[in-house]
From TrEMBL:
Protein's recorded name: Synaptic vesicular amine transporter
Lineage: Eukaryota, Metazoa, Ecdysozoa, Arthropoda, Hexapoda
Top-rank lineage group of the source organism: Eukaryota
Location(s), subcellular: Membrane
UniProt keyword NAD present: no
Pfam families, per the entry: MFS_1, Sugar_tr
Coiled coil (UniProt feature): none
Any one cellular-component term (Gene Ontology): terminal bouton
Membrane topology summary: Multi-pass membrane protein
Native source organism of the sequence: Mycetomoellerius zeteki
Amino acid sequence: MRLGDLKNSRMTTIVVVYLSLFLDNVLLTVVVPIIPDYLCTLDANTTSSVEEDENGRVGLLLSSKALVQLILNPAVGTLTGTLGYTRPLFLGNLSLLLAALLFAFGQTYEILFLARSIQGIASACIAVSGMSLVASQYSEEDERSKIMGFVLGSIALGVLLGYPIGSVLYDLEGKMAPFLLVSSLIVILICLQILTLDVQTNIEISKQQPTWLHLLSNPHILIISGAIWCSTSPMAILEPCLPIWLRTHIKPKKWQLGTVFIPDSVGYLIGTNFFGVIAYRYGRSKVAILAMFVVGVSAILIPLANTMSQLIFPHLGMGLGIGVADAALVPLLASLVDRNGNYGPVYSIQQVAVSLAYSLGPITGGEMVKAIGFPWVMRIVGIVNVAYCPLLIYLTLERRKLLAKKEEKKDYETFQQSITPYERFYDSDEDL
């Protein structure tokens, strides 16, 4: 196959979006096992009291990316209407490269904070434009659910590799090694995008564009976004707080700090890759209810572990629940705005929900750990996820009513079309 045949093809588009999300999440998670330990090393003090105080500092650094992304998501969603989807995606990959290089060479808290913030710019561009690009390429609901689940799997794969890459390379070669590896892969991706995607491509959008007020007043969009926020929050809290809690309670080896998150990634990978079509077939909101219940129960079980092996099943359940919820709800958002043709704004709202979780989670989680302890924080987050399920039940009932009305309208239109030829024949017979 020639390069001209690959240019702007659906397969090439999916590959570029997949790799962009993959590398963004590798960089997102590769820092998690490194930063807490590296900051403690800079302080040259590893006492228990200092490690507890480090919760807030590490939480602020990790959440800076999500805070920047939270601010920029609406702007990127609006700009996709005029710039298209490929140009913000290209800008996101360039920003991702800059962030990785700053992580590699930065040796102070301030530089690392700047690197994490720049990644927020990259993530806003990649997530909003990438998912919008996929939604615009696949208009069939069943095919869209399958492809979106596959693309969301890149997040899990990035997270799955990010934690162990960060912990193992940091242990063997030092801080620079994992970030230089990620930087090299991003350079290859940028070259691939330049060769295969036309950054000048514009999108055809309906003249009747939904306003932000219209989207934010839609209860279905709000409930779906709230579910994504709730299901993502436990992981956002675990990332900065769990390594420090493990160091003071279970005392694992340095390399184990990264591998503890592998079951989450495996669960998310399974959930996104295998439950997209299942959710479409059996009802997306129904499947999301079960997923959020699993997330809630898993969050409650995590603080009960006394060994590293006892963390495997709660983490696997949490990752599976989050993956199934995303595979069910993210394609559902696209179907709500299919009529308008611009998916940027609705996916910017979805990314705002994710950013809220990853910005408020580490900050509030770190402070709550100081006040009430890590076990109670996870119990509260688990209860919130279970308590959110009735809203998804309401969404299920509303969707069922809406689909019933559509079926009635379709049946009526079919009936009208069927009697039209008879009426024409009857009228013509009267004229004889």
